[in-house]
Amino acid sequence: NSRGTGSLLKDSISFTEVSASGLFEGHDLLRRGFTSVKNDLLPSHPLELTEKNFQLNQDKTNFATLRNIQGIHAPLKLQMEFRAVKQVQRLPFLHSSNMAMDILRGNDECIGFEDIHGDPSQSEVMGEPHMMMEHKLGLL
């Protein structure tokens, strides 16, 4: 762990979104909806944080088990494959099932809530494609 292999297991998704206007830009009501200070401060249920971080915690335990069984190369190879799969994405206005990620995690044979009712984080209404692409490219 002296070379920072423990840091490789950390989630690298968290980042702050800064637009072209800078840090002092107001809340974009059309894209992000209404804000609630209470929801930002406290979770609505005690298990909400556990459920939000479930996949990350499960990945960390799987990587630790894999490292103990097969050595350091196995979780590093799997993390490299995860990063490669995360980079390949569809356009932001098209729904993606992320089948390759499900196969790597072993969830391809499991039926979950999002398989039947759709992913709750995905909007049911398709947005305007030009505006979404300009936002992703940082032109907006």
UniProtKB/TrEMBL annotation:
Keyword terms of this UniProt record: Chaperone
GO cellular component terms listed in the entry, alphabetical order: cytoplasm; nucleus
Family: Belongs to the POMP/UMP1 family.
Organism for this UniProt entry: Dasyornis broadbenti
Domain of life: Eukaryota
Record GO biological process: proteasome assembly
Name this polypeptide is given: POMP protein
